[in-house]
Design brief:
The chain is of the alpha+beta class. It is built from 7 helices and 10 strands. Helix 1 packs across helix 2 and helix 6 runs antiparallel to helix 7. The chain starts with a helix and ends with a helix. Keywords: Cytoplasm. Pfam families: CS.
Length: 336
């Protein structure tokens, strides 16, 4: 038996190689036929016609459902590949944001260390103390955004772009997906580990597209949740209603990504960025500027109309009004 087994093992590789070679030949032949047919759909139509005429494919009542299932499986594979590509892109962007956040934190720490001696020597005035107290009160409700336009908490952190929100939850090292509880609904999110109190459990700040949301375990020590916003043209102030909010006037859209947007979306984002800068400088936004222009035009037309009435009245009442009319005409650019 040992000899037969050895013989079968020696014989197996050539058969597998022949099968692989045969499969490659078939694929090459089908690829050539696909090109001759002029596209995938004409090719499929021809193939279904041959299967129907030569093999009676559709005499089997379940044939349609079987073909549909094959197509659905192929589509599911494409969607899985697209999700994997998006996840890989998200991971790369998340890594870049974390690196930027670490660099920013190190720079702030260095600046604070260098400024500490000067702060000790300079006594604080009562006005400065009041200002610091006001800032602390404001920080209790609205906070400065992190490098990813979100916030960092003890139990989780989150970042955002206009289309989506990314949540990172630290978990014990070695955590498997079967231990995770992640329930994503349109207006509610629950995240935690089985047998333990939930880490996040509350009403979402805004609705999400549930079918486009997913989660994954990173390196066995962090749980990442991707939420796709239902309205992809607004910034979130928080993930869960009632949590501390981020100051959305200080978020910084990634200008390098504007080129990836369609013209209409890009125009909207650029308008939002312009309005944000104007507010920070105490200047009117684009909408306010447009209203001011409309008001100026209205007032100019009103003055022109009123000036014409005064000119006609002046000329009709007195011959001396002709001089007045000429002066009025020169000032307002009117003609009799």
């Amino acid at each position: 038996m040992a000899i037969i087994s050895d013989f079968q093992e020696d014989e197996a590789p050539p058969r597998q190689q022949q099968a692989a070679a045969g499969g490659a030949d078939v694929e090459e032949a089908l690829a050539a036929l696909l090109e001759r047919c002029g596209g995938a759909l004409p090719f499929l139509q021809a193939a279904i016609g041959v299967a129907h005429r030569r093999a009676g494919l559709f005499r089997d009542p379940s044939a349609v459902s079987k073909v549909t299932s094959m197509a659905a499986a192929a589509r599911a594979q494409v969607e899985a590949e697209e999700r994997a590509a998006r996840e890989a892109k998200r991971k790369a962007e998340e890594a870049e944001r974390k690196a930027a956040a670490e660099a920013e934190k190190a720079a702030k720490a260095a600046a604070a260390a260098s400024a500490a001696p000067a702060a000790e020597e300079k006594p604080e005035s009562s006005a400065e103390k009041d200002s610091m107290e006001v800032d602390k009160k404001e920080e209790g409700n609205v906070r400065q955004p992190n490098a990813g336009n979100g916030l960092d908490f003890e139990k989780y952190s989150w970042t955002q772009q206009l289309p989506e929100v990314n949540i990172t939850v630290p978990v014990p090292e070695g955590t498997k997906s079967r231990f995770v509880v992640c329930d994503i609904k349109k207006n509610h999110l629950k995240v935690g580990l089985k047998g333990q109190p939930p880490i996040i459990d509350g009403e979402l700040y805004k609705p999400v597209k549930v079918d486009d949301c997913f989660w994954s375990i990173e390196d066995g020590k962090s749980l990442n949740v991707l939420l796709t916003k239902h309205n992809q043209m607004e910034w979130w102030k928080s993930v869960i209603k009632g949590d501390p909010e981020v100051d959305t006037q200080k978020v910084e859209p990634e200008s390098s990504k504007l080129s990836d947007l369609d013209p209409e979306t890009r125009q909207t984002v650029e308008k939002m960025m312009f309005d944000q800068r104007q507010k920070q400088m105490g200047l009117p936004t684009s909408d306010e500027m447009q209203k001011q222009e409309i008001l100026k035009k209205f007032m100019a037309e009103r003055w022109t109309s009123q000036g014409r009435k005064w000119l006609e009245k002046d000329q009709s009442q007195s011959p001396e009004g002709v001089g007045w009319g000429i002066c009025f005409t020169s000032i307002f650019g009117l003609s009799g």
